[in-house]
């Protein structure tokens, strides 16, 4: 008598994706930062860990872009001229004032000051 071959039931659901192995990295955060992070993660329907990874990736991309920009002499000259010319900054601020809150304008001013400081440091390092 021939043995009956048993077939496994087909698996239901998505097959496992081959993921790159991840590393566990411990960070220390203040409770208010964790609370805000959790709120953003919940709003985006992702885990806290995933939200942190998204923020880090975004920051790295911006940092890498800025590093490349600061390494380009033509961009450095253009930034220097734009930051030195207050009329350019005033035009940008004027465009923002029509639908910007005072807090947003203050943040814009702080961003310009930060850009100026970063530009000056980078220019001084060259």
Provide structural commentary:
The chain is elongated, with a radius of gyration of 25 Å. The termini are far apart. It has two domains: 31-71; 72-126. With 126 residues, the protein is mainly alpha-helical. α1 crosses α2. The chain contains five helices and no strands.
Write the layout of secondary structure elements.
Elements: H1 31-44, H2 48-71, H3 73-84, H4 86-97, H5 102-125
Helix pairs in contact: 1-2, 3-5, 4-5
What structural keywords apply?
single chain, mainly alpha, 68% helix
How many beta strands in the DSSP annotation? 0
Biggest sheet statistics? none
- Tell me the helix content: 55-70%
Helix-strand pattern, N to C?
HHHHH
Stretches where pLDDT falls below 50 for ≥5 residues?
Answer: none
Describe the structure concisely:
The chain is mainly α. It is built from five helices and no strands. The mean pLDDT is 79.
């Amino acid at each position: 008598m021939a043995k009956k071959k048993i077939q496994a039931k087909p698996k239901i659901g998505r097959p496992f994706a081959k993921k790159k192995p991840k590393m566990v990295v411990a960070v220390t955060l203040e409770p208010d930062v964790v609370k805000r992070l959790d709120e953003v993660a919940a709003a985006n329907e992702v885990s806290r860990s995933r939200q942190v990874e998204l923020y880090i990736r975004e920051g790295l991309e911006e940092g890498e872009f800025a590093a490349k920009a600061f390494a380009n002499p033509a961009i450095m000259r253009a930034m220097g001229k734009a930051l030195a010319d207050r009329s350019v900054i005033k035009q940008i601020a004027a465009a923002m004032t029509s639908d910007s809150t005072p807090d947003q304008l203050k943040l814009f001013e702080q961003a310009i000051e930060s850009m100026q400081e970063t530009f000056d440091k980078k220019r001084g390092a060259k």
